[in-house]
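PROTEIN FOLDING TASK:
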Amino acid sequence: MKQIYIYKRFERFWHWSQAALIIFLAITGFEVHGSFHIFGFEQAARFHRVASWALIVLIIFAIFWHFATGEWKQYLPTTNKLKEQILYYAYGMFKGEPHPTKKTELSKMNPLQRLVYLGFKLFLIPVTIISGILYMFHKTIDANDVVVVEDIPLHGIAFWHTLGAFLLMVFLVVHVYMTTTGHTPTSNIKAMLTGYEDVDDEDGEGEIKIAEKNNESKS
């Protein structure tokens, strides 16, 4: 077993910050809905508003970073070994079968993850954020008779925002579960903390050389 450097510093910061903000938004958002009581309605609404803007700023920086570094290519969908990956998650990993794809610095996600994360970035996050902004400024929009959204009822906007919140929670639960499917139950979490991923010696030689060349070119 050897280690290769896969997750860069900003990537790890962005990942954990986004996760923390989404969880905090879920807590404050569901309290605003009356699901439970922790901060109180007014404080929860205030915290929810501040955290939502923090998430939007983080996403803007993350988008810039992805395009500036070329990391956006990690999300390009592919059908190569997609069937094998689905079968592996369905029953192969429970039988101890080897992982059908190998993680490298240039290919951090398997084909199924690419599709899921692409949908997360292009559909789930936009729907949740846009509906949240419309909900937040609905009175202002309605007062100014803004075309396109003036006829959208508030309960319709709330429905899409709440649906997005529930789907984000489902995504988070599945995501946490999938982190336990690495070499050990905590190896994937450790990799996202340190940046270094454990790979088998015979599988990692080529990736290690690529990573070393990339690190040399950056230094």
Observations:
- The helical segments are 9-32, 41-69, 82-92, 111-136, 138-143, 154-178, 187-194, 201-218.
- The domain at 18-185 is CATH 1.20.950.20 (Fumarate Reductase Cytochrome B subunit).
